From TrEMBL:
<dbReference type="InterPro" id="IPR052537">
    <property type="entry name" value="Extradiol_RC_dioxygenase"/>
</dbReference>
<dbReference type="GO" id="GO:0051213">
    <property type="term" value="F:dioxygenase activity"/>
</dbReference>
<keyword id="KW-0223">Dioxygenase</keyword>
<dbReference type="InterPro" id="IPR029068">
    <property type="entry name" value="Glyas_Bleomycin-R_OHBP_Dase"/>
</dbReference>
<dbReference type="Pfam" id="PF00903">
    <property type="entry name" value="Glyoxalase"/>
</dbReference>
<feature type="domain" description="VOC">
    <location>
        <begin position="6"/>
        <end position="130"/>
    </location>
</feature>
<protein>
    <submittedName>
        <fullName>Ring-cleaving dioxygenase</fullName>
    </submittedName>
</protein>
<feature type="domain" description="VOC">
    <location>
        <begin position="151"/>
        <end position="268"/>
    </location>
</feature>
<dbReference type="InterPro" id="IPR004360">
    <property type="entry name" value="Glyas_Fos-R_dOase_dom"/>
</dbReference>
<dbReference type="InterPro" id="IPR037523">
    <property type="entry name" value="VOC_core"/>
</dbReference>
<keyword id="KW-0560">Oxidoreductase</keyword>
Length: 312
């Protein structure tokens, strides 16, 4: 039986790209580790935010479309993206969200306290304190490593068929069921980050993709050989899985589990520093080779963005 270490990345659809950068870099203090384009829609950015090194389990990625229609969160989607913060830093984050006039509420589940809020485009987010996970050594504005988001804590999945989604998590991805509480079933992977997945047990009608919704959740494969094993494994489990797609910073395969959530499996290597240095990641527009000839055109068409410190 194969087992994933946990979440590799989560990809969402959002609105204006500068608003997206201001929220995730300026407010949450994440590092923009890559500025590139949507390989399937090159007139659109693909922006990546994560910890200081852009490690798997810390990366949230965005397709920003200014003036696009708002989506509807529902079945077949990640409903809530959970970030993990260092133990003892919750009061800092309450103050920080209040500073930027971001409404939040405190909740509890499975013995943990959560801070729930929305991003500027309606994505559902939450923070939870945990000892697990290495520190994020990125400082931006007033967000310093002692309080910085480490990466993903996990996610809450909304399904049109929760029994099937639970089955996919256990029997395909190799997560372990570790608890039930209220309307949620909790699963855990063996990694120390991006490892806690809660599934809502009530079936939900299909959500509508658009601004403020998650497009897909990606799981970790160790390397290219492991990735090919996953492709065969998923196919043998009866799912239609795509050919391997080169995303430059990882290879990807996709399949839709029977609760209608789009799953990706992505390789940990090569990562985000292979076409930029660690020091300069995210500063320049990086294009795959097939789009280099259109660089001038794309620079003209893409909305200018900059990473701005909002604490000044």
């Amino acid at each position: 039986m194969k087992k994933t270490a946990g979440i590799h990345h989560i990809t969402a659809i959002v609105g204006h790209p500068q608003e997206n950068v201001d929220f995730y870099a300026g407010v949450l203090g994440l590092r923009m580790v890559k500025k590139t384009i949507n390989f399937d829609d090159p007139g659109t950015y693909h922006l990546y935010f994560g910890n200081d090194g852009g490690k798997p389990g810390t990366i949230i990625t965005f397709f920003p479309w200014a003036n696009a229609y708002q989506g509807r969160i529902g079945g077949g989607q990640v409903g809530v993206t959970t970030y993990v913060i260092p133990a003892g830093s919750m009061s800092y984050w309450k103050d920080r969200l209040a500073k930027f006039n971001i409404k939040f509420r405190e909740t509890e589940r499975f013995g943990e306290s959560y801070l729930e809020f929305e991003d500027v485009h309606g994505l559902q987010l939450e923070l939870v304190e945990r000892e697990e996970g290495e520190p994020n050594n990125w400082t931006f504005g007033d967000v310093t490593p002692d309080v910085a988001i480490k990466g993903f804590g996990g996610a809450i999945l909304l399904s049109t068929n929760p029994d099937e989604t639970a089955k996919a998590l256990e029997d395909v991805m190799g997560l372990e069921k570790v608890g039930e509480e209220g309307d949620l079933i909790r699963f855990r992977s063996y990694g120390d980050i991006g490892n806690i997945i809660d599934v809502k047990r009530t079936p939900l009608g299909r959500g509508q993709m658009g601004v403020g919704t998650v497009h897909h959740i990606a799981w970790r494969a160790k390397d290219d050989a492991d990735h090919l094993d996953w492709q065969s494994y998923v196919s043998d489990k009866g799912f239609g899985v795509t050919p391997v797609r080169d995303r430059n910073y990882f290879n990807a395969i996709y399949f839709r589990e029977h609760g209608e959530i789009l799953f990706e499996i992505a390789t940990d290597p090569p990562g985000f520093a292979h076409d930029e240095s660690y020091e300069t990641m995210g500063q320049n527009l990086k294009l795959p080779e097939q789009y280099e000839q259109y660089r001038d055109q794309l620079n003209h068409e893409l909305i200018p963005i900059e990473v701005r410190e909002l604490d000044k």
